[in-house]
Write a structure and sequence with these properties.
With about 80 residues, this protein is an alpha+beta fold. The protein is about 15% helix and about 45% strand.
Length: about 80
């Protein structure tokens, strides 16, 4: 896969919760960190995501926001944690 975004985090799908419209994907990263995102159900299906599948989180630099710890705890699904 070749993309212009340079911020890429490779790992394995740890959790996959597929709903009617969206899917929550948690990717386990090297070093014990995890990153989670909500994607469309159709994207999940077209990517063939399954628990244990290799996956890559691609982050556009202009989409990253910085906040205090309390704001991050309330931010919801787009999170990076260990």
């Amino acid at each position: 896969m070749k993309v212009s975004a340079r911020n890429q985090l490779a790992g394995m799908v740890k959790v996959l919760n597929v709903g009617v419209v969206n899917a929550e994907v948690v990717i386990a990263l090297p070093g014990g960190m995890e990153i989670a995102a909500i994607i469309s159900k159709s994207s999940c299906e077209s990517l063939g995501l399954k628990v244990g599948s290799p996956a890559c989180a691609v982050i556009k630099a202009s989409d990253v926001m910085v906040g205090c710890v309390r704001a991050v705890e309330r931010a919801g699904f787009m999170r990076l944690s260990n």
